[in-house]
Structure formats: structure tokens, C-alpha cells
């Protein structure tokens, strides 16, 4: 809330590192859209891995663990749950499924946030309820010492702060105070500083990050586990969160360390996304299927060039071969000659 309030003053400049990240992510998003059209069969292979990794990693960051042999039955199956940790891991999977299925159709609202918390916390008394008591973020050391790392928003103010944060998010999206990716990371920082729930704030923040990425058209979280990347860089996550939360209550904090951390995670997710696609063997006939799908999606008369635009990465010669096969089976008809000839579907 304090970060989004800061952005409402329309900052004149942003750090060079942040600008670089945004430029990279804009290009990666363009390639993402191409891959989704080009290699849908490969993407199916990545989805299941991402679901498992996200459910396990996001909970493990919070100290929730399940046995390796129980991971698939708990996350992908309907196995009877043995303990509280398994219940929370499955709850995360259910929330993840809802976000993946609804994507940008699921609103960024107080109701959505509360529903996400209710799902991930399962059968516990305060699932879907804001905290009733003040609770600071405590850091514990191996020798038993502890310190207050951050004083969160008081319980009595939580409702007010949450509603204001969500209102500012929508205003920022409409008025474009800053680049939407910067606003997304700022929202995540504000949510963690408000710390609205007694427990589960980190997991809800990561699910909200995924949801807001969908709203902005960044779908990498569907195929690569952003949560696993955060877990792998957990120390830096806590360092930047602490650094950016200093003086947050006064609105004098520096949000850029945490914002750049989120950008770094997203950059790594897109790098891994493209590397994994290169490593996965293309299923036989996937390009042929891509062309078939493109043909059946055409409305009325179409051209070879129209199919090329719908099938990035597929050669013109291959498109011609598939068209001839479809023609021999009476599925399409050529209405002329030459590269500019028009085609139409039959039957």
C-alpha cells in the first residue's frame, strides 16, 4: 500500500537495472506468445512439472515438508492425507489449479485473496480470516536468539490497508503510474508488509504474484515454477524484503531492491522456459498437428501466408505438404494457383 502510494506520485525515473529487466521481459513475453502457438505439445510436458515444483517449494519455504514418495499422490492424486503438512500442500495445489484455469478472469480483489487463503490453509480455525492479533515478523537464529525483523500492520488496521492497497492497484493499472511489472512487484512488497493473516502470507503472496502475471499477459508461471526459483534464491528473497521494508510505515522506504529481485526471478523463469523447450524432444507430428489446427481455425477463405502467421517456426514447404495431404482427403480446396492462391475448407 505504501509502495503503490509512492508510485501514485509518478516517479520521474527508475533505476537502470529495473529498466533493463523490463526490456528483457517484454522481449521474453513476445517469444512466449510464439512458443504457445508453435509447440503446444511440448508445453504439456512442462505443466505437470511446474505444478509439482510450485506446490512443494512454496510450502517448503515456510518449513512445510512432505515425504518424496508422497509428493505425486498428494499433489496429483486423491490419496488420503496423512497429516497437516500434506493438507497444506494439497491446498496450495488446489489454489494453483484455480488460478491456472481462470487466469486473468479471476479478479485481483479482497474476496479472491481471502478465498486463496481459505483454500491453502484448509481445515483450520482462521482459514480465510485476517489476523486478530498483532504479529511481528521474527527472525530466529540457530543459537536461540531472535529479533524483530519487521513490525507488520496492526490487526485493527489490516482491513483498511488491504482495501486501500487493492484500490491503488486498480488505479495504477488504469492510470499507468509506473510499468505494470513494477506495480506488480510493489504490490507484492506491500502485501508482505501488511502481513494480513496469522499464517500463510508468503504462500498467498506467491499465488497473487502468479495471478497478477496472468493479468499482465506473462504466462511463464504456468510452465516454470516461480516458487522453486524463489526457494533456490531464498536468502536473497529475505535480504531484499528486509532492505525494502525499512521505513515502509513512513512511506520513505526503498522498494527497488525487492522489485529488482522479483524481476530477476521472472527473467530466470523465462530463460529456463526457453532452455527446457530446447531440451524436450518434439513429439512426432506436432508441427503437422499445429498446421491442422491452424487450418480448422480459419474462417472462410484463407491463404498460405495466413497459415504461416498462425504457425511460426514452420516452413512454407511443410505447410504446402500438409495442405496437399488435406486436399487429397477432401478436407480443403485450392481456389487458384501460385503462392497467393486462396484456399477454403470443405466438409
Question: What can you see in these coordinates?
Answer:
This protein has 347 residues and is mostly helical. The protein has two domains: 2-279, Orthogonal Bundle (Fic-like fold); 286-345, Winged helix-like DNA-binding domain superfamily/Winged helix DNA-binding domain (Arc Repressor Mutant, subunit A, Orthogonal Bundle). It has 15 helices and five strands. It has a three-stranded antiparallel beta sheet with strand order 3-5-4. A two-stranded antiparallel ribbon has the order 1-2. Strand 4 (332-334) and strand 5 (342-345) form a beta hairpin. Helix 5 (84-102) packs parallel to helix 9 (201-215). It is globular. The mean pLDDT is 88.
Short description:
The chain has helices spanning 2-7, 16-38, 40-61, 71-76, 84-102, 110-121, 155-175, 180-194, 201-215, 226-232, 234-245, 256-279, 286-297, 304-310, 316-328, and strands at residues 137-140, 146-150, 302-303, 332-334, 342-345. It is mainly α and 347 residues long.
Amino acid at each position: 500500500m505504501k509502495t503503490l502510494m509512492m508510485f501514485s506520485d509518478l516517479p520521474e525515473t527508475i533505476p537502470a537495472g529495473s529498466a533493463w529487466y523490463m526490456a528483457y521481459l517484454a522481449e521474453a513475453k513476445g517469444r512466449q506468445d510464439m512458443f504457445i502457438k508453435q509447440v503446444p505439445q511440448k508445453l504439456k510436458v512442462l505443466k505437470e512439472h511446474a505444478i509439482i515444483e510450485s506446490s512443494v517449494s512454496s510450502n517448503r519455504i515456510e518449513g512445510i515438508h512432505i515425504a518424496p514418495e508422497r509428493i505425486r499422490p498428494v499433489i496429483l492424486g486423491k490419496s488420503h492425507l496423512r497429516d497437516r503438512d500434506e493438507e497444506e500442500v494439497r491446498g496450495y495445489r488446489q489454489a494453483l489449479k484455480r488460478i491456472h484455469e481462470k487466469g486473468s478472469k479471476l479478479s485481483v480483489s479482497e474476496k479472491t485473496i481471502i478465498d486463496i487463503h481459505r483454500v491453502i490453509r484448509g481445515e483450520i480455525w482462521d482459514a480465510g480470516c485476517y489476523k486478530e492479533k498483532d504479529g511481528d515478523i521474527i527472525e530466529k537464529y540457530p543459537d536461540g536468539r531472535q529479533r524483530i525483523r519487521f513490525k507488520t500492520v496492526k490487526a485493527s488496521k489490516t482491513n483498511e490497508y488491504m482495501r486501500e492497497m487493492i484500490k491503488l492497484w486498480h488505479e495504477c493499472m488504469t492510470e499507468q503510474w509506473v510499468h505494470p511489472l513494477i506495480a506488480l512487484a510493489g504490490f507484492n512488497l506491500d502485501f508482505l508488509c501488511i502481513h494480513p493473516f496469522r499464517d500463510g502470507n508468503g504462500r498467498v503472496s506467491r499465488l497473487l504474484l502468479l495471478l497478477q502475471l496472468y493479468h499482465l499477459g506473462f504466462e511463464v508461471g504456468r510452465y516454470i515454477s516461480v516458487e522453486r526459483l524463489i526457494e533456490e534464491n531464498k536468502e536473497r528473497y529475505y535480504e531484499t524484503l528486509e532492505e525494502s521494508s525499512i521505513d515502509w510505515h513512513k512511506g520513505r522506504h526503498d522498494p527497488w531492491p525487492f522489485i529488482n529481485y522479483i524481476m530477476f526471478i521472472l527473467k530466470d523463469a523465462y530463460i529456463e522456459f526457453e532452455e527446457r523447450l530446447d531440451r524436450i524432444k518434439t513429439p512426432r507430428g506436432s508441427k503437422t498437428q499445429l498446421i491442422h489446427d491452424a487450418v480448422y481455425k480459419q474462417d472462410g477463405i484463407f491463404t498460405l501466408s495466413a497459415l504461416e502467421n498462425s504457425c511460426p517456426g514452420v516452413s512454407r514447404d511443410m505447410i504446402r505438404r500438409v495442405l496437399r495431404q488435406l486436399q487429397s482427403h477432401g478436407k480443403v480446396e485450392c481456389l487458384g494457383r501460385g503462392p497467393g492462391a486462396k484456399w477454403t475448407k470443405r466438409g
